[in-house]
Write the structure tokens for this entry.
Amino acid sequence: MRDIVIIKIDGTVEAQKLSGDSTADFNLIGGIVDGFVERAPIANYTQLMWVNEEGKIRGLPHNPKAQRLWDEAWGEGSDYIVGNVVITGDDTEEGETGVLPEGEAQRLVELLSK
């Protein structure tokens, strides 16, 4: 099981587990972000931020908590994060969604819940 962190536009931050089934996990992430997924590395390329690929076009609301993580990785003003977001570990060489290090999901939940 792989831990992920979900950062919703309503300010809710929660940890959840992926099943390990690639198709099911990809569908779960797509459901959380409500559409086609786009991934971008953060945290020195050790984590991925999954967002709705069409979020800005669709006018999804800004996600300030996810924006904090983006700004830490790439600098303020480098992008504008909208919609629900999922944080995972970086992809493996086999293309599987990577694992967040032990305790990282809980650390992110605590950090972003402040």
Remarks:
- The chain has a mean pLDDT of 92.
- Residues 59 and 82 are 8 Å apart (CA to CA).
